Amino acid sequence: MCLLGKACGFCKASFYLERFVLKHATAHIPKRYVQTNTNEKMKTIRTIVLMSLAIVMICCKEDDHLESTLLIGDWQSEEIYVNGKLQDAWINNSTILSIRVDQTYYKNYTSGSWLMQEDNITLIPRADLSIKSHQYKVIEASNDLLMLETTLTEGDYGRDFDQVETDEQITVREKFRRKN
């Protein structure tokens, strides 16, 4: 071949480079196949994992909104906590709360309408009562238990608690049991 190369005007080195390039060009194909195959496997695994995670999140997702039908009914207070302190027994059992299907409520001498938004219930007294609306966070709700929490002043709550000033902000947590 060298003679043929010289006869055609090519130097000896060009044949060597051609042989080297061809040999080099094909030498990395198995490595590239393995690398491409590995990348495809990783993409497939990643897709499977993401799809599985999405399915698990959809299937296991809890309902973000509280069913207002759980709140409908007549409730008797069982425990009332003010700033984390359990109140006396006479205060604990003194609240009656009635939440009705027609969006009205009755709570210890006040009545009006109620509005549910996500896990909050707002009690809106009748206009002629001149009482502020109270928004409660529903902490827990089941067929027989209702726990509400609100932050307001003692004066707005309408009760006189020991060791609390009338205009002091308090957090009230009320635990109710469904009346039979």
Characterization of the model:
The structure is a single chain. This protein has 180 residues and is of the alpha+beta class. The chain is 35% helix and 34% strand. The chain has five helices and nine strands, in the order H-H-H-E-E-H-E-E-E-E-E-E-H-E. It has helices spanning 2-8, 12-27, 29-60, 89-92, 154-157, and strands at residues 73-82, 85-86, 96-99, 104-107, 110-117, 120-125, 134-141, 145-153, 169-178. An eight-stranded antiparallel beta barrel has the order 1-3-4-5-6-7-8-9. The model has no long low-confidence stretch (mean pLDDT 79).
SSE map:
Layout: H1 2-8, H2 12-27, H3 29-60, E1 73-82, E2 85-86, H4 89-92, E3 96-99, E4 104-107, E5 110-117, E6 120-125, E7 134-141, E8 145-153, H5 154-157, E9 169-178
Antiparallel strand pairs: 1-2, 1-3, 1-9, 3-4, 4-5, 5-6, 6-7, 7-8, 8-9
Q: How are strands sequenced across the largest beta sheet?
A: 1-3-4-5-6-7-8-9
> Radius of gyration from the CA trace?
38 Å
**What is the SS-derived class?**
alpha+beta
Question: How much helicity do the residues have?
Answer: 25-40%
